[in-house]
Every structure is written in C-alpha cells, then in structure tokens.
Amino acid sequence: MTVSDPVVEAVVATISRSATEIRQGLIGRRGTADEENPSGETQAEADVWADELLADRLADIDGVGEYGSEERADVIDCGGDPETEPDTYAVAVDPLDGSSNLKSNNAMGTIFGVYDAALPARGETLIAAGYVLYGPITTMVLATETGVSEYEMSGGERRVVERDLTLPDDPVVYGFGGRVPDWPDDFEAYAREIERELKLRYGGAMIADVNQVLTYGGIFGYPGLASRPEGKLRLQFEGNPIGYIVERAGGRSSDGKESLLALEPDELHDRTPVHVGNAELIDRLEDRLD
Length: 290
Ligand code: P6P
Known about the structure:
8-stranded mixed beta sheet, Fructose-1,6-Bisphosphatase, Chain A, domain 1, globular, 5-stranded mixed beta sheet, single chain
C-alpha cells in the first residue's frame, strides 16, 4: 500500500529498502564509537553507520530539502527550502532508537518524521511519521493524514498487515523511564496508581515499548526528572514522530501539560518529557501533574 504524496512515498520506500540492510549491518557493530552525539551520549558504531547510510539515501530524494538526525549537530541542506518551496519537506531521523539495546540484543528501531517546515519544527507540521522495529520480525508502523498502517518488511519491500491501526480502548500495559528516586513526587504518585491497574512493559527502546502500547493499549512515558526537568527524549526525532503516530491512532501525547505536537522548539536537539497512550490515561496524567 503506497502513500499518496510521492515525496513521502519515496522517503518511506527508501527507509523500507534500507531496513533489511540496517538490521543485517548491526552484526559486528555492537561496540561504541569514540564520539558523542549532539545530546552528549556515547554513540554506538551502529548509530554512526546507520545515520550515514540514511543521510546519503534520503538526501538524494527530490523533495527532501533538509535532513536532520539525532546523531548530527546540524541539519544537512539537501538543496530545497521546506518553508518556501511546495512539495519540499524536512526529514528528521533517529537512525537507531535504543541502540544501547544492541549490547544485550534487545529490540530497537529507526524513527522518522517528514515535516512540512524547516527544522527545528513544531510537530503540527508533520505530514507523515513512522518507525521500523527490529524485533523478532522487522515491521514498520507508518502514520499519515489518512491513518496508521503496519507493514512486515522483507527483502527491502513492505507488505501491509494492518490498514487502520488504532489503540485498543481498554489499556493493558505501561512503561515509564527514568529512576524512581529521580521522579518528581506528582509523577511518582501517578505511576503508583497506574502500576496497580496495568502490566509493566519497559524495554529501554522507546519504539519497542510504544509498539506494545499501540498493540495492547496503555501508556509509555519518560517524564521530566528531578535531575533533568526537560526529560531525556528529543522532541524533533522521538517525541514529535511518536506523538503524531499515537494521536493518529486515536490516542494522545503530552509533555505533561499539552500535546507534544504543539510545542515550539528552540533548538534542533531540544529534549522534552514524553507521554503517549490512551487518551484517558494522558488526561489523568495532566490532571495529576502540578
Ligand atoms: P533509559 C534510548 O536511548 C532512549 O532514547 C529511548 O529509546 C528509551 O525509551 C530511553 O532512551 C531509555 O532510557 O534511561 O531507560 O536507558
């Protein structure tokens, strides 16, 4: 099932074709590079390699005006201005979300967002967002204005397995990042309520945990911490794309106060608290947080 916008379809097809190669390329790249990413985190060899592979291929697409990555300090100018030129977009990528799971061989993935604006941009300017999940099966979840679809990936191609993916009404799972002693009191109180109602599913890679929420219903959150009130996750590369997907699937996103997609970014690598899941759980969270 292709996407109607030809530029978005070209981006999605390029990432689909690269997914099999990235998964195969993880073998032998489980070490760390001698570099840090712009967020000050030690890069995995695979982070750098996957970013270079995706940058080369996505920057070449007509209609991709900019490429931004969690692994790069600055946006790459691909020869178009998403602010002034029609059908010209900015692509933001987290090449390997959860790459620290490589060492333990646990799930991780690639996140992408297609913004109809120059980066850094508000999530409301997204026209498509998705992720590839390197799990037992390589799958892609893709959200556009028309809804959310899930694909199984094989041999560089994608096959649709779910055309209208929506959050189940009755939540089942939850996963909250950060250490409990570092949670603000109001978030801890909320977490104590939720842990009595739902089952814990937290694996260290946001998209694998979010995929559980999309499959079973529930909530994933990485709150602002006492030691880091801005939270850990990046707005452009993690919060906005995942918020877009979950909202298109009938759920909500929030930084604790409002939809992630409404947040006005200052910098390309801004961090934000991220909460996504069933609307009633997000509403309750916002009511709980002072
Ligand atoms: P922690 C991975 O590094 C990531 O950015 C998200 O994918 C994940 O949800 C979170 O950080 C894990 O953080 O503190 O549990 O290691």
